[in-house]
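Problem 3 from the worked examples.
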Amino acid sequence: MTDLYQSQRAMRAMRRAAMQRGVIAILDVGTSKIGCLVLRFDGPDGFRASDGVGSMAGQSAFRVIGAATTRSRGVRFGEIDAMQETERAIRLAVQTAQKMAQIRVDHVIACVAGGAPRSYGLAGQIDLDGAQVTEQDIARAMASCEMPPIGEGREVLHAQPVNFALDHRSGLSDPRGQIGQQLACDMHLLSVESNTLANLIHCVKRCDLELAGLASSAYVSGISSLMEDEQELGAACIDMGGGATGMSIFMKKHMIYSDSVRLGGDHVTSDISKGLQVPLATAERLKTIHGGAIATGVDDRDLIELGGESGDWEHDRRTVSRAELIGIMRPRVEEILEEVRMRLDAAGFDHLPSQQIVLTGGASQIPGLDGLAPRILGQRVRIGRPLRVSGLPEKVTGAAFASAVGLCLFAAHPQDEWWDFEIPADRYPSRSLKRAVKWFKDNW
């Protein structure tokens, strides 16, 4: 526990130091693409307190001065599969972004898409005896939370206080300075597989970069794609990536649940490739230009030339109707949405006051998805795009870059976490996170 706590504090200190120097990089390592954004920070005032998800950690205004994307290599299901290939792709993205920004970056904040995330709800309570709530009291309340056994081979990625209650008053975002008898704290803890994080950390270090922060891809996509009212009233963000579909549920501007499905847009491409016997590159082109989720009567007459370079003229001149293409794509899209629906039902999403669901990510751009998704997920579904941030080039403003834009907002004003407070050494929970430190010890 002590090692994990201190290592996360060290990363937060490194992030603050990089922001004081004025420049930090954002690294989105996905299954289909690797994106890098270079941020320049202008100072502590530029955001209103209501922007983003709100936090007690302080905020900074920033501007994107460099951006680059490259095709991802060596990544499957959001996890690194071939270290050298991924390293080369990261180096290429970072160097291209540095060239555009005309500045060198040494510190990056990365996001994790895979790792089989699991959510836990924690609760703790302390007595105040009529004293004012101090930061040390908040630290003691968080330390009093009974930590669950997260299992061997898993690490804590986020440990965020999501609600404070002072006596009979609940729903407090920052109780410091108020007077009461008892202070209660609700926390959301997110754990992922340790090997997934260890591989990402090692790969970033091989690129001669220092890691100044880690975040869940589903979490940062929710930050960038959900509007402020949606974050407050309760909404789910479904990040449909290439190799995995992440989901996060927000309530009172905090993430309260996260999960993922190991299915994404690349599986739709693979189905097209196998069904039509075409290369993956051709299948991706067909999906992007001609694909869809709902067929109409016109699609039977709309013929698409497959093309090819096999040398067999008859084979290369084949055509397929758009209705056939949609018939291949739709079952996989329905499977992804049904898996997401099962996860949301297990999380108790139906009990939230708002049933809003926002689809984002590259695979959410399939035409007709906005008509198919409400039949499976519920009526309140919309396609979301990330918030517009200053200096972001037009080519990286689409839904596919929701996690990258969310990482920018996460870097500028992060949500407070367990390690932002001075937890007394004698207050570490006995069953807390002691097994969750090995990868920090090995890789820091």
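Problem 4, a separate protein:
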Amino acid sequence: MDNRKITEVDEYIVNLPEDIQEITNSLREIILNASLKLEEEFKWSMPNYSYKGLVCYLQASKKHVNLGFHKGNELVEKDTHNLLEGTGKTMRHVKIKKMEEINPEVFTSLINEAIKLND
């Protein structure tokens, strides 16, 4: 059991639609496995992951889950698969609608690049 998982996030996930739960759980594992440095927090009604500041977050809706990056604008050049969406000042996200769209290697790489931005 990963002792970095917090109850608030467990509760958040349990209340999601089943297919969205599966995606969210999978992304959560990818994030926590990407780096032992990441700390899970529950802020702004969603799971956030931080290391020396905010790194990424999970935002679930009925039809998809966003794997979001707080400094996503600085990751765009590392996003070789052009997955990042969003037009905010800094935040970008990858929208995942089904399990098949989860690419652990690509996501892990983006997460690790995001961590480096905080070093």
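Solution to problem 4. The beta strands are 39-43, 46-50, 54-60, 65-69, 92-96. The chain has a mean pLDDT of 96.
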